[in-house]
Amino acid sequence: MYSDKTHELINFQSVSKDYKNLLALDKISFTINKGDVFGYIGPNGAGKTTTIKIIVGLIRDYSGTVYFNGKDIAKNHYVIHKFVGYHPQNAGFQEWRTINHVMYTFGLLSGLRANVLEERIQKTLDFVDLLDDRDKKVKYLSGGMLQKLRLAQALINEPEILILDEPLSGLDPSSRYQIKNLIKLLSKQGKTILFSSHILSDVQDVANKVGILNQGKILRIGTPEELQNEFNIGNEIEIEYANDNKIFLNVDSLSCIHTLDKLASNKQVLHLKPEFNLDNAINQILSFLIQNKSKIRNFKTIKPSLEDVYLKYVRGEKQ
Amino acid sequence: MNLRILFVDELKGFYKSKVMLILWFGMPFLTLLLHFLNPDLEELPVSILVALLISSIGGTLSAALLSTSIANEKSHHVYDLFLVKPVPRYSILLAKYFAVYLCLIIATGISLIIGLIIDTYTSGSVPDYILQNTLDSLSISLAAMSISCSIGIFFGILVSSVPVAVILSVYIGNQVSAVSILATIFIDFINPSIFALIIGVSMTVLFIGISIIVFNRKQF
Lengths: 319, 220
Fold this sequence. Notes:
The complex is a heterodimer.
Chain A: E1 8-19, E2 22-33, E3 37-41, H1 48-56, E4 63-68, E5 71-72, H2 77-80, E6 84-87, H3 99-109, H4 114-127, H5 143-155, E7 161-165, H6 173-188, E8 192-197, H7 200-204, E9 209-214, E10 217-222, H8 224-230, E11 236-241, E12 257-264, E13 267-272, H9 278-291, E14 296-302, H10 306-314
Parallel strand pairs in A: 3-8, 3-9, 6-7, 7-8
Antiparallel strand pairs in A: 1-2, 1-4, 4-5, 9-10, 11-13, 11-14, 12-13
Helix pairs in contact in A: 3-4
Chain B: H1 2-15, H2 18-37, H3 46-75, H4 78-83, H5 89-123, H6 128-158, H7 162-177, H8 182-185, H9 192-217
């Protein structure tokens, strides 16, 4: 079977997978186009790793069809591996190996010839900033260096798509920053990336497309902006009053206010009704405050973050 | 092609492991020690004693080494990275088996040569019967060690806990590999070397075959 859409790189069509009594994936369908950075998010146990293992060929007994570049991966596993770089969540390396040895072995197993391998290893290790440590044994590497090595081995065959399973989990802030920068760099180079995480902020400023997965089902797919706009959570406005201010807003003051939180004696957060236009609501609020001669120190609008959207979806507030 | 890459790879890993260092240097040292301690061997040539010792110690160590390494690598998801490459699962197990077995053959060879040199040195020359007995012992040792290695792989694949895998592979490896020596003690109508080789090959094929089937069905 062939899929004919030329710009599609990966296409899941009604894929399900169960582990005895547990339904890990429930008829999921989605597409990743060439050049996409696809943030695949969901809580732990949502089915992200199962999806990824299907693409890389570690899981082959599933129902439905997965196409890679128009070809059914179930029938073309040994061809597709050439185009896929896989960064597993927790995969280890044999401890007696050095970084160089890891790269050499995976390079050879990817089908690279010895004459191009050395140059490719240098280039890749340089990219992930491990070149100076190439003779270090795996057992002496820090968590951040191990993640870089996992990324490096995934890049050794210059794959068409890079599949990163929780690449930032368990890292200290500095390593997270470094790995995230590498991913951004790869995306700038036009690499197609599937990037899973259970932490939304990890994918928020990297992905151009986000898929939210929960309990084996894809709840929503779209660009981060689409998700934020579509999910009508409502905006918030934070008002800080001067210490000697006497007139405060309350829920009944204005029709645009849905609820109101008092953060401190002189600080309020207004949750606006979703159906209200933000500009009109600001006008209403400012007019009220001016008319009542409220003394304001600070006034700022807070737009819903993708994190809010994600939590609303995962908690089942929007199906 | 990929079996060769993995075999060379595993060889690089195993030959400098602590267990193999014991075999490389410990066994020849033990051979020399036996000569200098001069125990009462009741006219048993040093080379034969060495062959028996090697099959016992070498088999035990290699079974423990293989089961530990496989159980550990399974739990650390080492194979996930190999299996997304065009690597048939059987080649991972065969590469390990051949790498360890080759190391054992070399260690056995070194120790036996030292044993033969000692026998030549002490008795002037090596009589034909000693040579024949040594070759018999060698074939029995190789058969027993091959069985032990395959049992190490079998329990490494089957069991998730490293200590349990080691205990089972060492204990059952010792018991099962002893079958290859049966002919020397109880069976008269067949040459002990031929019996050991037949048993060694068939047991090895059986255990590695089952290990491959189990490994192929494993979900990663």
